[in-house]
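Hey, can you fold this?
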Amino acid sequence: MASTVATALSSTHLSLPKQTLTLPLLHKPRPFSSLPSHHSSSPSPSLLSTAPFPSPSPLHSRKWKLSAATEEVLEPVEAQLPEPVEAQIAASSEAAKGEDVFAVVMIGSRQYIVFPGRYIYTQRLKGANVNDKIILSKVLLVGTRTKAYIGQPVVTNAAVHAVVEEQGLDKKVIIFKYKKKKNYRRTIGHRQPNTRIRITGITGYQDFPAETMPETVPA
């Protein structure tokens, strides 16, 4: 039975009808000459006639402009130099009647060279308050441009007038103590009290015998 069916299938030929399948074209082919201009080597005139790019926005904002506009323009101010020492001495030497004068005065155990109009720092003057007027009577020497009054040991009747301006302290001094192999170290700070006085005048030396200074001959 099976061999009969196989023989029948081999002897018969199946014939199927031939059908043609056609698909619609999405794009109609165009010739090479009708291609758009952007495929060609020469640039299109429409691209050359485009508008230029807009300029970039400034980096600073409007807020910065407003703050910059309200800023005041500061003009440079020249630094005022202090008057020379000679001018200060000349302006404050009314007691010497226009004659330049200086003195060597002893305050405590120290000697100071003083000029009218200048200030000096001395050791603390006990009992002296600010704006107090004081008189220094231990004047060892008085000198002018032409004369010298040398005391023996002081210039008789000479006096230096001054005004107390400030009661302060000197700069700090560090005291360090150390002992080796004993683990001993001590650090101490000290500020010495001082007084600043302003010299107002030198008087009373005119009656003391003076020594005339030799005239200086210019070289």
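Oh, and this one too while you're at it.
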Amino acid sequence: MGIAVYNISATSARVSWPSSPGCLDTFYSVMYDPNWNSLLMGYKRKSFMHEERIPVSQTSTHLANLLPQTAYFLCVTCQAANPVRDQCQVFSTLSESGEGHDRAGWELAMGVWLTCCILLLVIAGILLWGCLHTICSLPNQAADSCPVVTNSTLQDMSGSGRLYTPRSSSEDSTKHATIMQPPLLSAQTNSHIINQDHELRTLAKLSGSEPA
């Protein structure tokens, strides 16, 4: 008979065994004892401190109220018969400090996992906020880069045009006066020559001799 002991803790364990055809319409006897003297007494049923009768329809049971960090000698027989070697199994319960250590380790792992999840959520939120801020600022930058023509701008442009017009006309008049200066000088020279010629003719008439 192959007996399996699992889910062992400091105060409990679970035992399972294969069904036996010779135990039909009867029960299984599960015997266990922390006293190793039962081994020396030749697997006697009366040497076991604890015994539980399990219906034949079941092939497993739960052992409770065990002592922590204790080695148990367990046997499963049919109809409370004395066990044989292949019907017995030895197992040891865990220590209470070991369970506490395992529980503390599990709680520490859970705490680390929760902290990592929170940090990832915070980082994801910061990245999402940065992306949204960048996307929303692009239309504002495009609007700022486009020139906006307002009434004040038009007034400034018209005002600058009025200021520029007299300057252009004054420069043009200066150039025109500069260009017109040579004809005035030539007219003055011709009039001066004519006056001199008229004076010469007048003197000639007075003197009685007119030049040819």
